[in-house]
Prior knowledge:
Elements: H1 11-19, E1 22-27, H2 47-50, H3 53-56, H4 59-64, H5 66-82, H6 87-98, E2 101-106, H7 112-116, E3 121-123, E4 126-133, E5 161-165, H8 174-186, E6 189-193, H9 205-211, E7 215-219, E8 232-234, H10 238-249
Parallel strand pairs: 1-2, 1-6, 2-3, 6-7, 7-8
Antiparallel strand pairs: 4-5
Helix pairs in contact: 1-10, 6-10, 8-9
Residues 28-30, 33-34, 39-42, 46, 53, 57, 107, 125, 166-168, 193-196, 199, 219-222, 224, 237-239 line the site of 2'-O-acetyl adenosine-5-diphosphoribose.
Amino acid sequence: MSRAPACPIPEPLARALADARSIVVLTGAGVSAESGVPTFRDAQTGLWAKFDPFELATPRAFARQPGLVWDWYAERRAAVARALPNPGHRALVAIEGRAPSFLLATQNVDGLHHRAGSRSIVELHGSLARVRCSREDREVAAWDEPAPGEPPRCPDCGAFLRPDVVWFEEALPAAAIERAEAAARACDLMIVAGTSAEVHPAAALPWLARAAGATIVEINPSATPLTRHADHALRERSGVALPAWVASAWPASAAPDAAGGGAK
Ligand code: OAD
């Protein structure tokens, strides 16, 4: 007896992926959930269920308690360093390798797309892997051991260093959001995976693509404000749905784990 596929993919959806000329993917924290990295808004397990974002992820929080904020991000940096890319990340590498034009716009700061082997990426909310000077706004690669309870200081100007991530009340890096918006307006397929689609301006990207006539496919076990406006919604984890979709679009070439690069 043959087993039913873990995530059945309707034939028009398989064709939409195989035939797309220009693909934009918007990812959020859910794509890394199967790597053991917590999301933000999931009840119980999400970071914002346990921590107050206004105590940790705003410029005012950093001004008030720089050591606390630095330590929280340092812990998250250490946790993502221990995590590994999952089959969903790798399926996106496989899609990038086959699409004539491709851009991955991620809200994630965990670097797992890079480590899976994705190349054409814009990091809309920055990266935990980078640190910058809070005064001069430039990246800093090395610093001296900080005083206890404080972030390290900029070797040039002495201001505190901070993670190079976007906090609430801050603007996204202009070049990153402009590149993602231009690609969204020009794509014929937009895949929206693992995001609650609530945080702007990233959440507006599928709407730009939709207004320009692209097919919108959402991959998320839960409904979001986008779900009923998407052309297809796969109510499944991205680590299951994305490899199944790749295998159905390119049956001859798909490896069991959806090809793509290995974990690094
Ligand atoms: P959220 O935590 O808001 O949403 C995660 C989404 O992933 C939810 O809709 C879940 O249903 C879904 N999800 C959970 N497990 C999944 C899985 N295995 N496969 C697919 N989907 C799954 O995270 P984001 O949408 O990324 O910003 O949040 C956007 C921004 O808000 C973040 O970048 C962060 C946060 O506050 C800043 O810190 C500035």
